[in-house]
Each structure stands twice: as C-alpha cells, then as structure tokens.
Specification:
Elements lengths: L1 H9 L4 H4 L27 H11 L9 E2 L4 H5 L4 H23 L6 E2 H12 L10 H18 L17 E4 L2 E6 L2 E2 L1 H27 L6 H9 L23 H12 L1
Antiparallel strand pairs: 1-2, 3-4, 4-5
Helix pairs in contact: 1-8, 5-6, 6-7
C-alpha cells in the first residue's frame, strides 16, 4: 500500500468522483482502502475512515496488494477462529524481528499472498506442504528469505522457528498473550491490529515523503523530522495515546498538533 500512496501522489484524482452520489461498487474483500467487516478490527477514527472510503471509490490503480507489514485484514479475515488465533500468534512471534528490519531500512514491501505464506510457515500450518505445488514453492521462497534476513542480523540473535501446534502463548508489548482455538481475545486482537495499522500508516507516510521530498535533508534527519508529527517513534506506536496527534477525533486538535510541530 505504501507504493500505492506514492503513486497516488503523482496521479491526478478526479475530484468530481469523490463527491458523486453515484459510486462504483467497491470490492470490499480486496480493496485495501476499506476496513474489513470484522469485530476484531479496532474502531476506526471516523474522519480517516471517511477519507479512505472516498479513495476506495476512485481508480483501482491507487490500490496495491503490497505492504511493508501484513495488512490487518490478513489476520482478521480467516473464517475459522482457530486459524485466526494461529495467524495472530504467528505475527506476535515475528513482530519484533520485522520491527528490527524496519529500523535498519532493509526490507521491501511484500504482496498479501507472500505475507499469508509467511504466517502459514510461522504458525506451523505449512509443515506438510508439497514443495512442488505453487503454494509449496512460495513457502520455500519465504523460508529462504527469512533465513537470509536472520543471517544478516548483525549483533542480534533471533530464533525464528515455526510454532508447534501446542504453542498458544506469545509476548506482545511486554505482556503475555494467549490464543486459544475459539479465537483471539477481542482486546488483544484489537491492540495488535491497531499496532499494525499504525505501523503501516507511518511507513507509508515515510515512503510518500521520500517520493516528494526536495528539501535536501539526509534521509535519517528527514525521518526524525517526520517523527515529530505523531506520538511515539516510527516503530513504537503507543495505543494508550491513540487519540492524540494525527489520531485526535477533533480537527481542531489535529490542526493544533501540526502547528505546534511545524513551528
């Protein structure tokens, strides 16, 4: 989706269609600008949700199946509660590793299918996959990618082994989380999905800024400048501050926040 936003910055938008009463049907199953209808999704900020809905009705060229981290809809979409729990647990298992990769700016966006393959692998669901099938080949590709990333992790040791079937616990933001067959706890699921939403948003904004920036600033200095526009660092969003900064429900609060940072 970061690439989609970068492309959107270069693509004229038909503003008339944004306000047209006659809208084209939106494929909600695949459109990344539309929140999936899942009770696990955290409540969206109404203003941001409306903006995304407006974008969703425009040219599908603006959407992309790639993202710097898995899209929340991937974790929330499995129909079977047990599979949802396995996907959530798999992401919790590799969360810190991918945050590390982002901090080193050494990771490129992956397609939704590749993220799903990665979660399949780490959840232990692909252990019996036939390596000759299309899915099996993709799993092998993702395993190789992980091995290369782990091998290149300087002075940091990561143990990224697929989870066993009886593994139901993990740690997220310093606390223990449990994922049972009946599905993830609502509070845990929403916190994890909020974190994913926020991380993807910040990475997309950074990607867009890199496309448009003509300031001549060094990339690291530019990133530090951008970090002033949200609460917390780019890789460590804090859900307890979700209603602040750009996530404030009031437009006056958001404008005041931007003015303070821009002064």
């Amino acid at each position: 989706m970061s690439q989609a936003i970068a492309r959107a910055a270069k693509t004229p938008v038909n503003r008339g269609s944004l306000h047209s009463r006659t809208k084209r049907p939106v494929n909600r199953a695949h459109n990344t600008f539309v929140e999936p209808p899942s009770p696990l999704m955290p409540p969206a900020n109404p203003v941001w949700a409306k903006a995304l809905e407006l974008l969703a009705d425009n040219d599908p060229y603006l959407t992309s199946s790639e993202s710097i981290l898995p899209l929340p809809r991937l974790l929330a979409s499995p129909i079977k509660p047990e599979m949802q729990s396995r996907f959530f647990l798999a992401w919790v298992h590799i969360h810190d590793f991918f945050i590390y990769l982002l901090s080193r700016d050494s990771f490129s966006p992956l397609s939704n299918k590749k993220w799903r393959s990665l979660l399949d692998i780490m959840s232990g669901e692909s252990s019996g996959e036939n390596s000759k099938t299309k899915a099996g080949k993709q799993h092998a590709e993702m395993k190789e990618m992980l091995e290369k990333f782990v091998a290149g992790a300087e002075s940091v040791t990561f143990q990224l082994k697929p989870l066993s079937k009886d593994n139901v616990t993990g740690h997220f933001n310093g606390r223990l989380v449990i994922f049972i067959k009946a599905g993830p706890l609502l509070s845990d699921a929403r916190e994890i999905l909020w974190d994913l939403n926020e991380l993807n948003f910040r990475q997309e904004l950074l990607s867009l800024d890199r496309q448009l920036d003509r300031s001549g600033m060094l990339p690291f200095d530019r990133q530090l400048r951008l970090e002033e526009y949200w609460v917390g660092s780019i890789q460590q969003p804090d859900i307890s501050q979700a209603g602040q900064g750009l996530g404030a429900p009031s437009v006056q609060d958001r404008v005041q926040y931007l003015r303070q940072r821009g002064s």
